[in-house]
Amino acid sequence: MGMAPLPPLPYGGAGCKDDNYPEQTQVSLSQCGAPCGEDWIWYRGKCYYFSETYSDWDTSQSYCAFHNASLALIDSQEEMDFLRRFKGMKDHWIGLHRDVNGESWVLADGSSFNNTFQITGESPCVSLNNVRINSVDCYGDRRWICNKRDTEIHRTPL
């Protein structure tokens, strides 16, 4: 049984700003064109895709890369809260894994992880659940979250 489609984020006033986040440019799909593409959600400078199917970490990352994105790179607690809010009850892969030596954490874009949040467990890949961020075996099937940063989104000005 699939999950219902995610509701669109609320957008405020005229133009492309969300009145709840005046410091951030928010793009309204109806007023500003779709910066993210169908089935993607725009939030605070990034586009997100929440899968409804299951796959292993590598296949999930390949799906994201095909769409010029990566498994979700999480920059703040606010972003973490957003992901937990919209992902539903299922665990989802995010863009973090151990390096080839299994010693340190590396983001899906190849950059070093700066310990923005705590990861529990000793396994090589990382998933997000409703309580914590767990390291788990990369071959398990989970849903996934892709994102791409605002600089990777091509949109036409009004």
Task: Describe it.
Strands 1, 2, 3, 4, 5, 6, 7 and 8 form an eight-stranded mixed β-sheet that branches. Mean pLDDT is 79; it is low at 1-31. The chain has three helices and eight strands; from the N terminus they run αββαβαβββββ. With 158 residues, it is of the alpha+beta class. This is C-type lectin domain-containing protein.
Query: What string gives the helices and strands in order?
Result: HEEHEHEEEEE
The share of residues in helices is 10-25%
Q: What is the CA-based Rg, rounded?
A: 16 Å
Give the mean pLDDT: 79
Q: What amount of the residues lies in strands?
A: 15-25%
The helix-and-strand class reads alpha+beta
Distance between the termini: 40 Å
Number of helix segments? Answer: 3
Based on Cα principal axes, name the global outline: globular
Count of beta strands: 8
Low-confidence stretches: 1-31
Biggest sheet features? 8 strands, mixed
What is the structure about, briefly put?
By secondary structure, this protein is α+β, with helices and mostly antiparallel strands. The chain contains three helices and eight strands.
Write the SSE topology.
Blueprint: H1 29-32, E1 41-43, E2 46-50, H2 57-66, E3 70-71, H3 77-87, E4 92-98, E5 105-107, E6 125-128, E7 133-136, E8 143-149
Parallel strand pairs: 4-8
Antiparallel strand pairs: 1-2, 2-8, 3-8, 4-5, 4-6, 6-7
Keywords:
alpha+beta, eight-stranded mixed sheet
